[in-house]
Amino acid sequence: MSPGLRLIPVPATRQPLSLLTVDRAVADLRRGQPVVIQGPAGSAAVAVAAEGAVARRLDGLRSMAQSEPDLVVTARRGAVLGLCGGSLKVMVLKVSGGLTPELVRDLSDPRSNVTVPLPFSVTCQEAPAHGCASAAIKLCKTARLLPASAIAEVRDPDAADLAQWAARRNLFLVDAGDVFQYDHIAAQFLTPVGEARVPLQGAEQTRIIAFRPQDGGLEHLALVFGSPTAEAPVLTRLHSECFTGDLLGSLRCDCGDQLRGAIQEINGRGDGGVLLYLAQEGRGIGLVNKLRAYTLQDNGFDTVDANEQLGFDADERVYLPAAQMLRHLGFSRVRLLTNNPAKVDGLMRCGISVEERVPHTFPSNQHNEVYLRTKVDRGGHFA
What we know:
By secondary structure, the chain is an alpha/beta fold. The protein folds into two domains: 15-184, DHBP synthase; 191-280 and 317-377, Rossmann fold. The protein has helices spanning 15-30, 55-65, 75-80, 101-108, 132-142, 162-168, 176-188, 243-247, 255-268, 281-284, 287-298, 303-310, 320-329, 341-349, 369-377, and strands at 35-38, 44-49, 70-74, 90-95, 122-126, 148-153, 172-175, 191-197, 206-212, 220-225, 234-240, 273-278, 333-337, 353-358. Helix 1 (15-30) crosses helix 7 (176-188), helix 5 runs parallel beside helix 7 and helix 7 (176-188) packs parallel to helix 13 (320-329). It is globular.
């Protein structure tokens, strides 16, 4: 080796670092802190979640970026506001006179009293699919916040070295490309971190295996009943966690019935099976947003419309973690216990062969009959 030279070890892939940077950015947004997003072709922006866009944060964005903040929302929310159709993904809203915390709330939160048409001037434009604005929305969704962000394009001439510029302002810098790859990489790096035999009522031969992504994010659980083998398609249930239904016995949904019914069904078959308990509360929007959707449902919206009022798609779940967990357990062929064809399609797109759909229905009650009917009429579920 030449004098004065030294070897510096570098990782073979930056994917683990990519997970950690997105996780840190998500944590900052949840705390109401702004983050710097580096986009393609030298673009950059400072963003704060709409829920954290208080006056001092908006003033800070103006001062640091040297530009006027805009509000970024999903096309679903834009359609609710009467500003566009639902075909676009992300919209940038420019408010005449500039953003205020009150305007951010009115435009992003359906619980505000704003009326349509809007009583103030707003222009909108489509955001680039992989730019800073779209990355800000993805970060907010990953953080389980309202999918809306105040964002200011960085125009400070001192920001040529963006990393140093962000560091001097104590802001965390995240790359937009890492944001868009997060779901795929997080699933790829799921690792079993704990396992135990947990006898359940009616299913005493049960093992629970906890899977955690490398960034330390939320764990997914695999419940393995009996001793299933890969020689035949394994009976499998994908169950998204539901705090209100699974734990509290809420009558607003049928999740508790589905969970307990699946355990009974899989265990009762005799040849074993798997239930994947996925950390995707509220079809992927999180518990807080699910509670917000419940409030909207009490005001007359069905479950699909309530999600769209909030700015979400009707179903935000991804099935990459489920596919990765099944592969780790040694299964690539399943008989899927579900009435939701989207689960069948989603799992098959992730490389798992769904060789049979096994029906999974339960009686309604006076509190969830509209919810269940909506899943059939608008969600495409089998009755």
